[in-house]
């Protein structure tokens, strides 16, 4: 049985990409201009990259499972753990940072926006690719 996918609208695709760019760019802009040591900036940059990767990987794993593509339980668990760790590490870092509360909120909100948007962008890319027929749906090989 072949699953039917509805193509995401151009508005949703555009809004998803805009949210990802705005979220990541504002986070990185704030980091660039922050009065922090380079090792602190590296910590926050790494957390953003780790969080983006974990959220996309988790979304792909969930989607694969829904479509019947095998995903091992350990990989699925590590996706959840990685996403949780990235959020926890950001929260711990911001809790202990010597930043104004408004700056902490700025980083937290741009981080969460970036994670949400990365999931939406990955979903849109996958849906459009399936609809265009660039790779077969499960069971069509």
UniProtKB/TrEMBL annotation:
<dbReference type="InterPro" id="IPR008024">
    <property type="entry name" value="YiaAB"/>
</dbReference>
<feature type="domain" description="YiaAB two helix">
    <location>
        <begin position="12"/>
        <end position="64"/>
    </location>
</feature>
<keyword id="KW-0812">Transmembrane</keyword>
<dbReference type="InterPro" id="IPR038972">
    <property type="entry name" value="YiaA-like"/>
</dbReference>
<protein>
    <submittedName>
        <fullName>Inner membrane protein YiaA</fullName>
    </submittedName>
</protein>
<dbReference type="Pfam" id="PF05360">
    <property type="entry name" value="YiaAB"/>
</dbReference>
<feature type="transmembrane region" description="Helical">
    <location>
        <begin position="12"/>
        <end position="30"/>
    </location>
</feature>
<feature type="transmembrane region" description="Helical">
    <location>
        <begin position="106"/>
        <end position="125"/>
    </location>
</feature>
<keyword id="KW-0472">Membrane</keyword>
<feature type="domain" description="YiaAB two helix">
    <location>
        <begin position="75"/>
        <end position="127"/>
    </location>
</feature>
<feature type="transmembrane region" description="Helical">
    <location>
        <begin position="74"/>
        <end position="94"/>
    </location>
</feature>
<feature type="transmembrane region" description="Helical">
    <location>
        <begin position="42"/>
        <end position="62"/>
    </location>
</feature>
<keyword id="KW-1133">Transmembrane helix</keyword>
């Amino acid at each position: 049985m072949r699953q039917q996918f509805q193509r995401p609208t151009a508005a949703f695709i555009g809004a998803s990409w805009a949210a990802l760019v705005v979220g990541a760019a504002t986070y990185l802009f704030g980091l660039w201009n922050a009065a922090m040591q380079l090792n602190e900036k590296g910590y926050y940059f790494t957390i953003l990259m780790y969080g983006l990767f974990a959220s996309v990987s988790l979304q792909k794993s969930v989607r694969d499972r829904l479509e019947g593509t095998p995903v091992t339980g350990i990989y699925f668990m590590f996706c959840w753990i990685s996403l949780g760790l990235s959020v926890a590490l950001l929260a711990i870092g911001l809790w202990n940072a010597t930043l104004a509360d408004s700056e902490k909120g700025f980083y937290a909100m741009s981080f969460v926006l970036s994670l949400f948007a990365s999931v939406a962008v990955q979903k849109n890319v996958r849906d459009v690719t399936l609809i265009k027929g660039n790779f077969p749906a499960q069971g069509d090989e």
